[in-house]
Fold each of these.
Amino acid sequence: MKPIINREMCIGCGMCENICPEVFKLNDGKSEVINLPDYTVFKEKIEQAKDSCPVQAIDIEE
Ligand code: SF4
C-alpha cells in the first residue's frame, strides 16, 4: 500500500500530518508523502488520515 496526495485538492489544513507525521508532511502549504520503503506499519493511521481529510485529497494505492 502507498498513500497518494492530490496536491491540487489539498488545502493544507495539516490534519494528515497531525494524525501521521511519520508519513505526511506539509511543504509549501500542501501535504506530501514522505518516501518510505514500507507504509504498512502505519496502515491504520494512514487510513485515519484519509478518512479525516476534509477534501478527500488522500488516496491509497494498493
Ligand atoms: S488532510 Fe487533506 S487537505 Fe489537509 S493537509 Fe492533508 S491532504 Fe491536505
Amino acid sequence: MDLQLVGRGRPILVALAAASAIALFAIVASMMGVRTAEAAFVSTTLPPVQVVEPEPVRSGVAFVGGDGVTLWSGPERDPLLALEGGITLPFLHRSGDWLLVTTMCNDTAWVDAADVEIVPSAAAETPGSGFDIAGATIVLDPGHGARDWGGVGPSGLAEKEVNLDIADRVRDLMAASRVIDWSDGSVDPGAEVPSFGRVILTRDVTGPEGGDFELGLGYRASVATAAGADAFVSIHNNTVPRIDTDIPGSEVYYSAAAEGSDRLASLIYEELLRSFSVFEADWRGGELLGARARIDPDTGDDYYGLLRRSTMPAVIVEGVYISEPDEEALLATAEFRQAYAEAVYRGIVRFLTTAEEGPGVNRPEVFGLDAGTVSGNGCQLPVRAE
Ligand SMILES: [Zn+2]
C-alpha cells in the first residue's frame, strides 16, 4: 500500500520533522524497553500527520453479490433498475465513488463502488517459462445464453447449457493445483501446476437462472479487457458440418489482430484432438479443420465481433458438432465434457508457461457476404505498367 505523509502548513518540512521525531522517539523508547507500536501510540504531542489513502481503482471488474445492485443513470442521479446478484460488471472509468460499468446488454450504467466487490485490472504478464500461474487472470466465456440457445442437437440438447458446464469444469480444474501427465493428457490433483490466480466466467452458474442469462458480445469482451485477462477463451460447439472426417472436426478461431491468439488457438486445438480422439464417433467437420481466423472483407478486421473487440490473446473454441447425432450424444456425457475442459486447461497452461507453437494455424481467410471480391462497385486497383 502506498501511504503518503502530508503535513498541514509547511507540508514537507513538518512531515519530515514529524517522521524524524517519531523515529527518534521509537529508538529512545526501544532502548527503554518500550515496544515501537506503543511508542507510536503515545506520541500524541507531535504535529498532526494526515494519511492519504491510495488512489482508487480506476478500472477492473465489480462483482455483484447475492443482494444485487442498483444501476444508476449517473452519479447521484436516477436509479435505473435493480440488478440480480451473481454477476460481474466490467468498468473502465470511475468518477469519485461511482463506477461506469458495461451491462450484459452492452449499455453503460453507474454503480456505487460501495455496493460491489472490486477487483482491479490485472497487470499483463508475458507468457513463457517464467510465467506465474498463481498470478494469472483467465476469462472463460460460455457461448450464448437465455433465449439464444446456440446450436441445438437432434434430440434437443442446447449448446448454451453444454458450453456453461464445460466452462465451469475448466474453472474447477484451475481452482486447485494439478499435475498433468503429458504422455496421455490426464489431469489430476498434484503440485506441478499451481491454482490460477483468478478465473472469471462471463456467465456463471452462481448467477441468475443458474447462469442462463443473456450477454452481448461487447459485454463479454469488456469483462476480459477490464479484468486484464492473460487469456480470453470462449467455449462453443459447432453446427452444420460439410463433410465426413476421420478425426474430430474441432475448430479454434483466433483473433488475427491480438498478439498470441494464434499460438493459443494452435495449442488448444492440439489438446482437443488429444482429448477427443479416444472417443468413438462418425466425426463430421468443415472443409478446414484446426486453428483458423476469419477476416471481414469490408473492414479488414476480425470477422467475429468477440475477437474484434479483444486486445489480449483471444480464441473461440468450437469443440465438436452438436448438430450431429453421434457428437450430441458425446456432449451429453460428463466424461466428454470433462475431456473438453481438460483440453482447454492443458492448452492454456502450455500457452502461458512455454513458447511452444503446437501444430500451427491456418492462414486468416476472408469471410463474409462479399468474400472474394475487392469491392462491390466496380472499383479497380491501379496496375503498374510493365
Ligand atoms: Zn456457439
